[in-house]
Design goal:
With 81 residues, the chain is mainly β. It is 0% helix and 48% strand. It starts with a strand and ends in a 9-residue tail after the last strand.
Amino acid sequence: MRSKVEIVQIRVADIASSDVVNKRGPEKNGWIEVERLEQLESGDYVVHDVRNVDSFTATGYDLVWLQTVVRLDANSHLALH
């Protein structure tokens, strides 16, 4: 299966485990795979990455960029009918 990646914005409160997100925007660098989302007593969230290197804190309404994978059904060199 071939696929393409589309980048969409979501709120931090909607992050799920295994999501690939970037807090800096749709840039080449800064993507992390999420291990878990922890809510603090203050209501803020800590986004933990799987390597425990790039975790960050944000409010639930803050935006992050999420990679979504879309299946490609056609070959690039064949005409669609």
